[in-house]
Amino acid sequence: MTAAEALNDALRWLDERGLNAGTSGNLSIRVDDGLLVTPSAIPPSELSPERMVLLGLDGACRSDGVPTSEWRIHRDIYLARPDAGAIVHTHSTYATALASLRENLPPFHYQVAKAGGREIVCSAYAPYGTQELSDAVKAALGDRRACLMANHGMLALGPDLQKAVSLALEVEVLCRQYLIARAAGSPVLLTDEQMDIARDSFLTYGQPESRRVPL
Known about the structure:
It contains six helices and six strands. It is an alpha+beta fold. It has a single domain, classed as 3-Layer(aba) Sandwich (L-fuculose-1-phosphate Aldolase). A six-stranded antiparallel β-sheet has the order 3-2-1-4-6-5, sandwiched between helices. A hairpin with a 3-residue loop joins strand 5 and strand 6.
């Protein structure tokens, strides 16, 4: 499967599961020539691999089409994070709800550590498609693999597209669980030590590469 085919399939997969709707959200994959990113304002039902847009790391288009308005976020993360092989940005319901409260996702569950830290941080707000938003997202990410985007949505990255999509789904589920728990009472938060143990355990969690099932 080509990178363009993988992006097309992943965007449809996210749409079918309600993590995006309409033309919201965008994805990218790092490629030798820069990054391959989803186009602007085209719903998944109308997408095809041929409509994905190739960008250089200088932001210049190297193919036909108009890239997502959030291309700066993707480009800037690839420049700053050598570990990022793919990026997923969604407007999923529960992550966006929590981001609209401008709150971090706290350590209410050990799986929050899958994003690489003790909590998942919510960025400052900035208008979509701007350099200011890209800067805010990078600051919220730090060295972690996911963040919330104030009044906007969430973002997850991974060494490959399958892992980035999987993390985006897990963050959405965690946000849902947290908001339900908070509606019922006051969730008991795990300690820094407990979260550090969980974070370290995830470094060796999972199947060997040769046994992974493709997305």
